[in-house]
């Protein structure tokens, strides 16, 4: 399949700031070996984000009474062909479980978004100015 359609996964998990560089790299490299590439959200020196979570945030409510916690998180993005979505989800779970075990991550509930997107690519060396 070579069309523009892709399934995009955005995986968000918590970690201590000092754990983020190695854990995010491990997950991204493992997924890249399976699917050709993955993206860690953030930069090399600032590879974490900040998450805010209500203690009762897992419930579907109009308003949340639980304490709101602030924690460092990181995100990994993976895009695959739609027919690879089930395999990609399984590989994401495997990579995250392994990183959590290897690095002692404080993650429990892993947020995974899946979106249907269209992807386009162009080669800067092949583009001619207008």
Could you characterize the architecture of this molecule?
This is Nitrogen regulatory protein P-II family. This protein is of the alpha+beta class. The protein has a domain at 13-55 and 67-74. The protein is 27% helix and 31% strand. The protein is built from two helices and five strands; from the N terminus they run βαβββαβ. It has helices at residues 20-35, 85-103; strands at 5-14, 39-41, 49-54, 68-80, 111-118. Strands 1, 2, 3, 4 and 5 form a five-stranded antiparallel sheet that branches. Helix 1 runs antiparallel to helix 2. It is globular, with a radius of gyration of 17 Å. The two termini are 31 Å apart. The model has no long low-confidence stretch (mean pLDDT 89).
Brief synopsis:
With 130 residues, the chain is an alpha+beta fold. It contains 2 helices and 5 strands. It has helices spanning 20-35, 85-103, and strands at 5-14, 39-41, 49-54, 68-80, 111-118.
Class computed from helices, strands and strand pairing:
alpha+beta
Order of helices and strands: EHEEEHE
What is the rounded distance between the termini? 31 Å
Describe the main β-sheet briefly. Answer: 5 strands, antiparallel
Share of residues in strands: 25-35%
Report the total helices: 2
The averaged pLDDT comes out at 89
Helix content: 25-40%
Low-confidence stretches: none
Mind telling me the C-alpha Rg? 17 Å
Molecular shape? globular
Number of E-state strands: 5
């Amino acid at each position: 399949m070579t069309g523009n359609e892709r399934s995009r996964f955005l995986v968000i998990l918590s970690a201590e700031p000092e754990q983020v560089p190695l854990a995010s790299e491990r997950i991204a490299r493992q997924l890249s070996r399976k699917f050709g590439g993955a993206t860690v959200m953030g930069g090399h020196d600032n590879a974490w984000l900040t998450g805010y979570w209500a203690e009762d945030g897992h419930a579907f409510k109009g308003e949340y009474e639980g304490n709101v916690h602030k924690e460092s998180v990181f995100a990994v993005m993976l895009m695959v062909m739609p027919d690879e979505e089930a395999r990609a989800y399984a590989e994401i779970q495997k990579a995250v479980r392994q990183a959590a075990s290897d690095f002692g991550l404080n993650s429990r509930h892993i947020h995974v978004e899946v979106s249907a997107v269209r992807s386009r690519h162009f080669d800067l060396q092949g583009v001619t100015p207008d």
